[in-house]
Amino acid sequence: MNTQSTQTIKLPILQPGEYDLWKMRMEQYLQCINYTLWEIIENGNAPIVTKTVDNKETIIPPTIVEEKAQRKA
Protein backbone atom coordinates (compact mmCIF):
# COMPACT_ATOMS: atom_id res chain seq x y z
CA MET A 1 0.00 0.00 0.00
CA ASN A 2 1.39 3.40 -1.02
CA THR A 3 0.64 6.33 1.25
CA GLN A 4 1.26 9.86 0.08
CA SER A 5 1.36 12.86 2.32
CA THR A 6 0.84 16.36 1.13
CA GLN A 7 2.69 19.30 2.54
CA THR A 8 1.70 22.88 2.32
CA ILE A 9 4.54 25.05 1.11
CA LYS A 10 4.33 28.67 2.07
CA LEU A 11 5.81 30.70 -0.75
CA PRO A 12 7.40 34.04 0.06
CA ILE A 13 5.33 37.00 -1.03
CA LEU A 14 6.97 40.27 -1.99
CA GLN A 15 5.70 42.83 0.45
CA PRO A 16 5.55 46.56 -0.24
CA GLY A 17 8.76 48.18 0.94
CA GLU A 18 10.81 44.96 0.62
CA TYR A 19 11.71 45.42 -3.03
CA ASP A 20 15.28 46.56 -2.36
CA LEU A 21 15.96 43.54 -0.14
CA TRP A 22 14.42 41.19 -2.73
CA LYS A 23 16.44 42.81 -5.51
CA MET A 24 19.68 42.41 -3.55
CA ARG A 25 18.95 38.73 -2.81
CA MET A 26 18.14 38.01 -6.47
CA GLU A 27 21.36 39.70 -7.61
CA GLN A 28 23.41 37.63 -5.15
CA TYR A 29 21.61 34.43 -6.15
CA LEU A 30 22.18 34.95 -9.87
CA GLN A 31 25.81 35.94 -9.34
CA CYS A 32 26.45 32.72 -7.39
CA ILE A 33 24.53 30.42 -9.73
CA ASN A 34 25.67 31.75 -13.10
CA TYR A 35 27.83 34.87 -13.18
CA THR A 36 27.83 35.00 -16.99
CA LEU A 37 24.05 35.22 -16.95
CA TRP A 38 24.31 38.05 -14.42
CA GLU A 39 26.75 39.93 -16.69
CA ILE A 40 24.26 39.66 -19.55
CA ILE A 41 21.47 40.95 -17.31
CA GLU A 42 23.62 43.87 -16.18
CA ASN A 43 25.27 44.77 -19.48
CA GLY A 44 22.95 43.36 -22.11
CA ASN A 45 24.05 40.96 -24.78
CA ALA A 46 27.50 41.62 -26.19
CA PRO A 47 27.42 44.28 -28.91
CA ILE A 48 28.83 43.52 -32.32
CA VAL A 49 32.45 44.58 -32.33
CA THR A 50 34.09 45.49 -35.62
CA LYS A 51 37.71 46.05 -36.51
CA THR A 52 38.93 47.84 -39.64
CA VAL A 53 42.12 46.54 -41.24
CA ASP A 54 43.25 47.71 -44.67
CA ASN A 55 39.88 49.39 -45.27
CA LYS A 56 38.07 46.09 -44.64
CA GLU A 57 35.67 45.85 -41.73
CA THR A 58 35.85 42.57 -39.82
CA ILE A 59 33.25 41.48 -37.27
CA ILE A 60 34.80 40.10 -34.10
CA PRO A 61 32.56 37.42 -32.54
CA PRO A 62 31.67 37.63 -28.84
CA THR A 63 34.14 35.97 -26.47
CA ILE A 64 32.85 33.15 -24.29
CA VAL A 65 34.02 32.45 -20.74
CA GLU A 66 36.01 29.37 -21.81
CA GLU A 67 38.01 31.43 -24.32
CA LYS A 68 38.81 34.02 -21.63
CA ALA A 69 39.98 31.24 -19.30
CA GLN A 70 42.26 29.79 -22.00
CA ARG A 71 43.90 33.17 -22.57
CA LYS A 72 44.56 33.60 -18.85
CA ALA A 73 46.20 30.15 -18.58
Structure overview:
Helix 1 packs across helix 2. This protein has 73 residues and is α+β, with helices and mostly antiparallel strands. It has helices spanning 19-33, 35-43, 65-72; strands spanning 49-53, 56-60. The protein has one domain (19-72). Helices cover 44% and strands 14% of the residues. The model has no long low-confidence stretch (mean pLDDT 76). It has a two-stranded antiparallel sheet. The protein is elongated. The chain contains three helices and two strands; from the N terminus they run H-H-E-E-H.
Secondary structure elements and pairings:
Layout (H helix, E strand, L loop, with lengths): L18 H15 L1 H9 L5 E5 L2 E5 L4 H8 L1
Helix pairs in contact: 1-2
Structure, briefly:
With 73 residues, the chain is α+β, with helices and mostly antiparallel strands. Helices cover 44% and strands 14% of the residues.
- N to C succession of SSEs: HHEEH
Report the span from N to C terminus: 58 Å
Let me know the number of strands. Answer: 2
- What's the structural domain tally? 1
The main sheet orders its strands as 1-2
Beta-strand content: 5-15%
Count of helical segments? 3
User: How much helix is in the residues?
Assistant: 40-55%
Q: Let me know the average pLDDT.
A: 76
Gross morphology: elongated
